[in-house]
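Why do we bother with a discrete structure alphabet at all? Because it lets us treat a fold like text: something you can write down, compare, and reason about line by line. To make this less abstract, here is a complete entry for Reverse transcriptase domain-containing protein. Read it the way you would read a sentence in a foreign language you are learning: slowly, and without expecting to understand everything at once.
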Amino acid sequence: MTTRTEDSKTFHMLINNQRRSLKGSPQDLHVENEIPTGKENILHGFKSHFANQLAIPTHDNTYNYKPNIEQEMDTITELVKCVDIQLPSKREVYKAMININKGKTADEFDLTIENFLYGGDKVLDCTHKIILAIFKSEMVPDIPKKGLLAPVYKIKSYILNINNYRGITVLPVLFESILKHRIKPNTNVTHNADLQKTVF
């Protein structure tokens, strides 16, 4: 799992390899009190497990995050009011494309950054129009928020225990890449926000 921060190319290669097939993986898996067998049942077991782990809200009674979230939202809103946000140019969109790491795992729509880079001027024009619409409406549609979750074995303990798998989500990142290059000069990379570890 250290490849996530130390070697991005290897990290995405590992995810891609695990997503291609279950060949070489165990033919049964311990999911709580059940032991599903066969590819389809194992996939369903992973889906149920991660749905319960990630989609159902949990509450940490030891810390109240709500005031912090509201405070950060208010701060961001005030900062945005003071800034004239420029619409991205086609050049800025292309620059964001070429700066995204190549050879990464495909997203939920089976797209990689190479699809955009080698799609020619028509793909660039369409992508630019979509991103312009997002900036103008100040609303991010649901599609770029969707991700493809892949179970990755943590290489510890029992391989048949579903609790020994971590869910890694691959998201479309082009829109975020534009924002990243805009805010990076003003961001202290050593600072982690308190809310980064929030559990919802």
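What the structure line is telling us, in plain words: The chain has one domain: 3-57+87-188. Residues 5 and 19 are 20 Å apart (CA to CA).
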